Amino acid sequence: MMAGEMEGRLSGTSVIPILTVQDPEQAVLASEALARGGMTVIEITLRTAQALASIRAVKEALPSLQVAAGTVLDDRQMDAALAAGSDFCVSPGLTPALLRAARDRGCSLLPGVATASDIMCGLAEGFQVFKLFPAMAAGGVALLRSLSGPFPDVRFCPTGGVTRENLGILLAEPNVLCCGGSWMASQSLIDAADWAAIEGLASAAQSGRGTGP
Questions:
Q1: Order of strands, edge to edge, in the sheet holding 129-132?
Q2: What was the pLDDT predicted at 210?
Q3: Is the pTM of this model over 0.85?
Q4: Could you tell me the domains of the chain?
Q5: Does the keyword section mention Transmembrane helix (predicted)?
Q6: Do 130 and 154 touch, CB atoms closer than 8 A?
Q7: Which residues lie closer than 8 Å to 53 by C-beta, 6 or more apart?
């Protein structure tokens, strides 16, 4: 994977909506609402039995939307995600085996990091964009600023504890490329079929305001 590829994928978005869905039809409807709100990238986590079917359904319905498979832990899940049509994969952490699997498959991967050692492992394999997870529990803005000194060329997608209230604060950090969050398409909004609310939250988040007007 080229070092700048992930940055190119994410450079046009302020936030990646994270969906954990139980039903492919709901996944499509939620994704359509997010797309109407201006989202160009979403993540569907591999935490439910219908996750792969949901990725496949969303890609068929919205081929121009970038769909990432989240919570990818090993090469088996990576293979399944790619077979389902995911555009790239996201992991909560990194291992040498996972990084090698991504390289061997030509798979775009956003690996998770929480420490300087994690970042150094990723850099050694050619990665420069990382998911900072769990972002707020690990230190939030203070951690981002601390990491900017030794790693001036690294960019982050903070995820974990990111809310519409703190989104703007995180995006203001120079080493933050975008953020990941689940509030735009929460399970309660999906269950209520409140697609208008999802669209509105997406629009506010994509503008970098988070909370909306």
A1: 112-113, 129-132, 155-158
A2: 55
A3: yes
A4: 14-203 (3.20.20.70)
A5: no
A6: yes
A7: 24, 84
